[in-house]
Amino acid sequence: MEFSSKLLARAVDEIAQLPGIGKRSALRLALHLLKQPKDNTYHLAQALTQFRDQINFCQKCHNLSDQPVCEICANTNRDATVICVVEDIRDVMAIENTRQFKGYYHVLGGIISPMDGVGPNDLTLESLVEKIKQNTIKEVIFALSATVEADTTNFYMYKILAPFAVKITAISRGIPIGDELEYTDEVTLGRSILTRIPYEDALKE
User: What is the pLDDT of residues 5-52, one digit of tens each?
Assistant: First the structure.
């Protein structure tokens, strides 16, 4: 793709690095920004810069947060005996939208995927074990997507948590195999949380 402007070419190259955005889509977005009032573009740039520079990972659950501790972990009205393990913030948002879960979360920051170079040490598993060692957690819910990589991660977590006196459950398979949690409708996801099953039973499915 040839450009008459090096500035435009650079803008397109940067935008095209975003997932799901090709060069043509990047060009369309760049030209759209060019047509907008300058303040609109400045506000976008400022929002992205502040987001990148000031965003925190919650010290307790590893969720994205504006503060050292996220609003969910700071809410003392939630059930401190139940923790729901998810892949990332998108899954926290999806489950929160169901309004069916009242415990706390633990965000892994990914799932085990050797093909992508992601191993157990790349996840927040160590801090999950530390939470269990405090003996305040009675149930751990595995709420990962229905994929092969997620199943591998679930099994790995089950192995490292099995020695502890904690109930281990998994969301029921109302979610089709291969589907990402964030794209599951709220009713199905909510029911999957409420009708969770012992993880040992999930292994037999």
Answer: 999 999 999 999 999 999 999 999 999 999 999 999 999 999 999 999
Task: At 169, list the tokens.
Answer: 């459950």
- Structural domain boundaries, residue 172: 67-204
DSSP sequence for 34-102 = HHS-HHHHHHHHHHHHHHHHH-EE-TTT--EESSSS-HHHH-TTSEEEEEEEESSHHHHHHHHHHT---
Question: Is residue 43 one of the residues assigned to a domain?
Answer: yes
Q: pTM for this structure?
A: 0.80
Helix, strand, coil: what percent of the chain each, to 5? 50, 15, 35
